Amino acid sequence: MNPKGSRFFVFCKYIIFSMALILVLILIFNFTACENREKVIKIGSQAVLSGEDKFFGEAQLVSLELAVSELSPVKIGGFDYRLDLVSKDDEGNAEKAFLIAQELVEENVTAVIGSTFNGTTKASIPVFAEFNIPIITTSAQGLDIALGYSNFFRVIMNSKQRIENIVNFLNDELKPKKLVIIDNSEEYTTNLVDSMVEIFNDKKIAYLKRYTIKHDLNEYQVLAENLLIDEPDYIFFAANYGELTDLITEVRNIGLSSQFVTEQLGMDESISLLADKELLEGLVAVIGEPPSLAKYSEDKKAVDFWRKYQDFVSKMKDRSISKEGPGPYAPYCYDSFYLIIEAMKRSNSILPEDFMGELKKTSYDGIVGNIKFNSNGDRVDPPSTIFIMKNGDWVRY
Question: Which of 59, 194, 232, 390 could form a cystine bridge with 330, CB 3.0-4.6 A?
Answer without folding.
Answer: 59
